[in-house]
Write a structure and sequence with these properties.
Elements (H helix, E strand, L loop, with lengths): L3 H15 L4 E6 L20 E7 L2 E6 L2 E6 L5 E6 L8 E7 L3 E6 L6 E6 L22 H8 L6 H5 L10 H11 L12 H20 L40 E5 L2 E5 L6
Helix pairs in contact: 1-5, 2-5, 4-5
The structure holds a DNA duplex (16 and 16 nucleotides).
Length: 270
DNA sequence: ATAATAACCTGAGGGC
DNA sequence: TGCCCTCAGGTTATTA
């Protein structure tokens, strides 16, 4: 479900609710996620949450000297509720806080994950080997162009490849390519440096715009407080097959790339 | 190394 | 109303 903006919005929602709180205990009801919740996860008990941050689509909670790494998969959602809040279906685990609240993780499709990392979290799985963070100055046209040069797969798949750039998922990949005027099926190596300039600028702009809107809610995703993200109202082509292209009016086309639906305008994107 | 494919899950929505 | 089919904001393991 969530791409970079949705994870960032989740982080920002969690930060004031978690920072400085002590984790009294961890309750796991269902370890069954894409990667099973590790047995030693209750090692966080007694630790203070000193920061809430994000890398790619992962949320990082610094707790004591360790790090809780959380991934939302497609349908993961974190809420902070009273300890007495009734359980819902697919509530996998709680971090019980020192103020009577719990951080509760719900995930119907179970594609998410939870890791406990001791030491530097960036040098080991699942964070090691990730590509550029798109909203930082590391992500430049020169970098992207160099990473596309040896690749022949469709450029959309390269944008969604986490070893090149992180956080761009299926929705934003289509939106970014539309806004850049680049056809999603173009071979990666065929994309010029000038086009990479455009792509990099558009990726930064679209992701930041979506964060400001609270992310994109189409079905499952919601913010920490349960409210929807408004960026869905500003999608131009994603999920709109046959609708008029907002630029030229011709019908939005679809194609499947990497088993994912892809939306584009065959007139505006070359 | 890169690319293509299948796989992991549940639930919502459309067609009949 | 219900069944059956398709599809869904992600990642990884396995093949060529």
């Amino acid at each position: 479900m969530p791409e970079l903006p949705e994870v960032e919005v989740t982080c920002r929602g969690l930060r004031p609710l978690l920072t400085g709180r002590t984790v009294k205990a961890v309750t796991v009801r269902n370890r069954s996620l894409r990667v099973p919740v590790p047995e030693d996860i209750d090692g966080f008990a007694g630790g203070v949450i000193s920061s809430v941050s994000r890398r790619a689509k992962y949320i990082l909670l610094a707790i004591g000297g360790d790090t809780a790494v959380i991934h939302l998969g497609m349908t993961g959602h974190i809420s902070v509720v009273d300890q007495s809040e009734p359980l819902k279906k697919h509530d996998h685990y709680d971090f019980i806080l020192d103020n009577g609240k719990v951080m509760r993780y719900n995930d119907p499709r179970r594609f998410g994950g939870l890791w406990r990392i001791s030491g530097d979290p960036f040098s080991c799985s699942p964070l090691a080997g990730l590509g550029a963070e798109p909203l930082t100055c590391d992500f430049t046209a020169e970098y992207l162009h160099s990473r596309l040069q040896r690749r022949h797969c469709p450029v959309k798949l390269s944008l969604m490849n986490n070893s090149i750039v992180v956080g761009v998922g299926n929705i934003y990949a289509s939106e970014v390519l539309f806004a850049s005027g680049i056809h999603p099926c173009r071979p990666s190596s065929d994309v010029s440096l000038d086009e990479c300039e455009k792509l990099v600028a558009v990726i930064k702009c679209k992701l930041e715009e979506s964060i400001k809107s609270g992310g994109t809610t189409i079905r499952n995703y919601s913010q920490v407080d349960g409210s929807r993200g408004e960026f869905a109202d500003r999608l131009r082509v994603y999920g709109k097959p046959g609708c008029a292209c907002p630029n030229c009016g011709s019908p939005v086309q679809t194609v499947t790339l990497g088993q994912r639906s892809t939306f584009y305008c065959s007139v505006c994107q070359k």
